[in-house]
Amino acid sequence: MNALAPIAAQEVRFHEYANLFPMLTGQPFDELVADIAANGVREPVVFMGDTILDGRNRYMAAREAGVECPRVNFEGDDPLSFVISTNLHRRHLSESQRAMVATRLAKMGHGGDRRSEKTEQAANLPLEIVPANDPDPAPITQKDAAGLLNVSPRSVRAARVVENEGIPDLAEAVDRGDIKVSAAAEIARLPKEEQPEAIEQKIVNRTSFTGNNEWYTPAEYIEVARTFLGGFDLDPASSDIANETVQAERFFTESDNGLEQDWQGRVWLNPPYAQPAIGEFIEKAVAEFDSGRVTGMIVLTHNYTDTRWFQTGAANANAICFTRGRIRFEGPNGEKAAPTQGQAFFYFGDDVAGFHQHFASIGFVVQVMK
Question: Which of 18, 67, 200, 339 is the most exposed place for a label (fewest CB within 10 A)?
Answer without folding.
Answer: 67
